[in-house]
Amino acid sequence: MKKLITIAIAVFFAGLTTCRAADFVSPVSARLVSKERKPLALQSRWQKNTLDPITTRNGMNCFVYGHSNPTIIVTPYKVADLELQPGEVINSMVLGDNARWYAEIVFSGSGDISTSHVVFKALDSGLTTTAVITTDRRVYHINLKSDRSKHMLYTGFIYPQDHIAITKAAREKEIKEKEKRTTPDGFDITNLNFDYEISGNAGWRPLQVFDNGVKTYIKLPKLQEMPMFMVKTAAGKGLVNCRVKNNCFIVDRIFDQGYLILGVGKDKEELTLTRLEAKK
Are residues 209 and 149 part of one domain? Predict the structure, then answer.
């Protein structure tokens, strides 16, 4: 008799451990009108169009946040690690079935690089539930399923919006740095060559002489009369294509030696501009 009672008790508890959550609730379904069924249909359509997860080199199964409906598969009495974004702080967590599922918040790292992890464990196979995790940055909706042999050890997320924000911030930083390097005339000073030597006798001198690898710029002080510009040629001195804008000669080429000539005869003033690279 005792043996029969023992067997009956064992069968009873074995049945309890294999019960599904649905076995504990009423079989009566809710009556839904068309407007109430519409969100369910839209949700189902969205789930069918979500992006597939990828696996990283360290074995993490990564879901695309906001574009996926993550499901974590857990083998009973094994732990599954869900890693959140570094620096993200968990505010709260709710498990749909906290009788047969266990969840604990743990951390890796420290300080600003501390990373929150949620560790899930199932007490039996064939269980399904959901979890909601709220943080200081976002909300996670997680599906949980338990299986006798299948197990997802390590899970995390890819955050496309953060990548977009990082790229945008990097681009804005690049633009600001370029603005710092750019003169009011639109020149990037890192690409300019200022290695010119100025010699000769004149009561005035160029404020700047530089080139950008294509054209040469000669900035002059305000003069009552603009000098003439010539370059050294095989025959001596010759004219070259150039124009004047805001007291600046813009020469349409790079030259080894150029000349600024103002006046004639005894009033003649002449300066020689020599590109130092040409002297090497």
Answer: no
For residues 145 and 59, membership in a common domain is answered with: yes
Distance CA(205)–CA(260), nearest Å, equals 10
- Whether the CB-CB separation of 108 and 114 falls below 8 Å is answered with yes
Q: Containing domain of residue 67, as a range? A: 46-158
Give the Cα separation of 115 and 86 in Å (integer). 4
Q: How many domains does the structure of the chain reveal?
A: 2
CATH number at residue 81: 2.60.40.2020
Residue-level pLDDT, tens digit, the chain, 280 residues: 555 445 444 444 445 444 555 566 777 788 888 888 888 888 888 777 788 888 888 899 999 999 888 999 999 999 999 999 999 999 999 999 999 999 999 999 987 789 999 999 999 999 999 999 999 999 999 999 999 999 999 999 999 887 777 777 788 887 777 766 666 566 777 788 999 999 998 999 999 999 988 899 999 999 989 999 999 998 899 999 999 988 999 999 999 999 999 998 888 999 999 999 866 5
Q: Looking only at Cα atoms, what is the longest distance across the chain?
A: 138
Verify that 242 and 146 share a domain, yes or no: no
Q: What is the pTM of this model?
A: 0.55
